[in-house]
Amino acid sequence: MAATLTLEEVFQDKIDNEIRIEPKDWMPEAYRQTLIRQISQHAHSEIIGMLPEGNWITRAPSLKRKAILLAKVQDEAGHGLYLYAAAETLGISRDEMYDQLHSGKAKYSSIFNYPTLTWADIGAVGWLVDGAAIMNQVPLCRNSYGPYARAMVRVCKEESFHQRQGFESLLVLSKGSPAQKRMLQEAINRWWWPSVMMFGPSDDASPHSAQSMKWKIKRFSNDELRQKFVDICAEQVKILGCTLPDPDLKWNEATGHYDFGEINWKEFWEVVSGNGPCNKQRLDARRNAWDEGQWVRDAASAHAAKRKQRMATSAA
Ligand code: FAQ
């Protein structure tokens, strides 16, 4: 007679057979907590990620660029909201997640703690930051948790548009005046290494990767995705007539990949632990927006309560 499978074995069997886990299915508590951690960090990243770009909406160089930037930033708000909704299906409330962000307890992507100093930084964010985000997020469309995987399909479609508009705006600068070309190269120099770091710690220093791969939350390791990103950008940068700020970047015939230089992990962990160039500014902006929006939440709640009362009275 076949032995009865434990809940854990049934769960892993579904994962091994590419069957999605849905909110009402049994799941190990650690799987639930890993997803809450990753999805909420991702949602916070989208929301905080609006700030460096929002900085340039009033200063975009043309109406066309302003309209594109506005739409992009609004997409990011939408991505944050989908992702908060996906995390809510795991039993955490939105208020708890906001609390974790505003208290500084929750992480969000290191990349958004760097400043956008010139207009070219906005193009570089599109090309490099959205490019890195897509590289990491396309495999997440096939992750094992249904609501997260479905949200990622929509997010990735929009992000690939974001990446292309970023590259296109840099291409325009690359054909511009010497000052514009200089501005472009300087933006690439600023955003390259933070984008390479954005994939997270190297595989031997990534505490969550092995288990997340087993659960098919992650499909590729941090280093595998980082390498793919470097390989693509090393070619794309040539079209811009620019260079990546890495003297060790070199095509390796034997591996079929680009070799690249040492990552400054000290800088990465400093930024992750709150000491990057803009961490304080970003969290202050987020907390202020939350506090200043209190009257809107109060008014909406008062309106809903009044409506409920009116409906109860007319039904009586
Ligand atoms: N920044 O063991 P691992 C975007 C933390 S959205 C800060 O490798 P895991 C859209 C990690 O949380 C960008 N912290 O962890 C946009 C963990 O800390 P914990 C966000 C980081 O989870 C574009 C610890 O290090 N995308 O860009 C970072 O298996 C343009 C150990 O690391 C996502 O969130 C980092 N870069 O792998 C918006 C995608 N990396 O929790 C505006 C979903 C690692 O133990 C403009 N997330 N840490 O305290 C993921 O794929 C994964 O969570 C990883 C990290 C790959 C980020």
UniProtKB/TrEMBL annotation:
One of its GO terms (molecular function) is phenylacetyl-CoA 1,2-epoxidase activity. Transmembrane segments: none annotated. GO terms for biological process: phenylacetate catabolic process. InterPro entries: Aromatic_CoA_ox/epox, Ferritin-like, Ferritin-like_SF, PaaA, PaaA_PaaC. One of its GO terms (cellular component) is cytosol. This is 1,2-phenylacetyl-CoA epoxidase subunit A. It comes from Filimonas effusa. The lineage of its organism: Bacteria, Pseudomonadati, Bacteroidota, Chitinophagia, Chitinophagales.
